[in-house]
Amino acid sequence: MNTFLTDKNRAVRRAVRAFCEREIAPVARQIDQEASFPWEVADKMGRLGYFGIQAPKALDGAELDTVSYVLIIEEISRASGGLGLCVTVHNSVAVAPLLAFGTEAQKQRWIPPLARGEKIGAFCLTEPNAGSDASGIEATALKDGDHYCVNAGKVLVTNGGIADLCLIFARTDPKAGRRGISVIVAERGTPGFSVGDLEDLCGMRANPVSSIRLTDCRIPVENRLGREGMGLAIGLAALDTGRIGIAAQAVGIAQAALEESVRYAKARRQFGVPIARHQSIQQMIADMATDLDAARLMVLRAAVRRDRGEPFSQASAMAKLHASEAAMRITDQAVQIHGGYGYSKAYPVERYWRDARVTRIYEGTSEIHRMVIARGVLGD
Amino acid sequence: MNIVCCLKSVLLAAPERQVVRTADLSDLNPFDRPVLETALRLREETGGCITALSMGPPAAADALRQALALGADRAVLLCDRALAGADTLATSTALAAAVARLLPYDLLLFGTRTSDSDTGQVGPQTAVRLGLPLVTWVHALERTASGFVAERRADGFRERFAVTLPAAMTIHPAAVTPRDETLGGIDAAYEHGVIETWGLEALGCDPAEVGEAGSPTRVVSLAKKTRDRKCELLTGAGEEVAEALVRTLADRGLIG
Lengths: 380, 256
Known about the structure:
The structure holds two protein chains of two kinds.
Chain A: H1 7-33, H2 39-48, H3 66-79, H4 81-101, H5 104-115, E1 121-124, E2 140-144, E3 147-157, E4 165-171, E5 181-187, E6 193-198, E7 210-220, E8 224-225, H6 231-267, E9 269-270, E10 273-274, H7 279-307, H8 313-338, H9 349-357, H10 366-378
Parallel strand pairs in A: 1-4
Antiparallel strand pairs in A: 2-3, 3-7, 4-5, 5-8, 6-7, 9-10
Chain B: E1 3-7, E2 9-11, E3 26-28, H1 33-46, E4 50-55, H2 61-70, E5 74-78, H3 88-100, E6 107-111, H4 122-130, E7 134-143, E8 147-154, E9 157-164, E10 167-171, H5 183-191, E11 195-198, H6 200-203, H7 238-251
Parallel strand pairs in B: 1-4, 1-6, 4-5, 5-11, 6-10, 7-10
Antiparallel strand pairs in B: 2-3, 7-8, 8-9
Helix pairs in contact in B: 2-5, 3-4
């Protein structure tokens, strides 16, 4: 399993695992049940570099490779899916596109506080009528002198309740269709910027997912990321990277589910023996471990391709599709192995099951991923 | 203040009872983390240089990289086939030879013990070899004009010693809460960190005094101790159970 890992990757994983087991695991159940964001832990993570994993050192980042990045997301998600989500979204669809498409001045201004975790980033694409069909967004950013007047109603924004910096996808040219969309960086506190109530979600409850509304919000032109009309291209590029993170998150959740299942199967006795001795349980454990291993290898492959500068869009789509579907199967089997207790909040597997469910939906549903993958395979 | 921290790469597991020192199965001795933390805090106050020193196979370099990631300035690994199989005495001979080449230093720090062999001897033996004053189980340090007042906590006592420098100390595991490596620190340690590797020649040691040849003790065999455990369930009302528990523990001499 260590085929792809360098000594540095292993050192990163060891350090992150130790931190997560000490700082996150003990509060994971509570932050899920109370749907609260653990600021104290997040502050520590910020000081250790978790919010600028791949940002350059000159901009206060840790400048790690993508393989390290996925190991970090896997480890955090193994302890808490909701916190893993916060970190992966911040790094991959907020910091990464700012680094890839920002001007030098924009990077100098925005990246250091984001990389230190003093500011949290969010990606605001989804609207009530635009999800899988991103080109259907209705938000507008109309130029008015050296400002844009932005009106947007964004929903289901990961990190929405705590975000300081939001990448808003809006139409700068309402007549230009897909090519009329741009990315405007909106900062919390700008007049007209408001955060809606937190969503009461099934899983990932530690993450403050909310709506974000911009009403006649005047944002300087220098806050536009990339050229006018580049919005969808920026979004899709960001999601290519983002998907590797979501896939890593699914792997982390599934890993936790497998570990709990093994522990439980060895301890729980029925018919006079630990249930791990029953063939039906062994079959489930074997399927879970195999499914998980394949998912992890696919995630690492996508990460390695990105690190090597090779095209990774297809690899990342496949990794996200397989890892999220595998996480669903694995967490479902974990609940099954736990029997009635698996359905109880007294055990963590029901949380893994709830957390895993959304990985098949966000940053591109499984169905959209199959569409993208098929297009690549069929050469359309 | 120049500080030398002696660290050990410890074994985390021996699958199939084979002792194989690979990076995945080794880690920085957890009792050495407070040592590095103590050194880092002293450096923050006084400046100077922290050298991390270890003896071990090439895989032990990982523990030194952890030290670099935490903020050590320099890392030296004593690595030579002739050093293999050393007991604590032979280890202290090699460490003392290395420390003598790291002059000038003010403090020589050790953990109190290691998680994989737990003798607690290497620190004191090395200090004796170097003729340094030694305080063990140091819980707190207070700087004075000529050195430190070191508070030692052991056996239920607090002892305070005035120490002049250079001196050797073993650091109490609870003296300080060790920091975590930053991700940027790990990256820098692996991308730019240098592990100086010193062999027997660089140390100038007599091969007969180090490694297995220089070890008066040998591990003859190693076997896992099995512990017989049994579970007893006390039932009844809360107070009765508490009383019965106290009586049972007292009868067995476990509480006084």
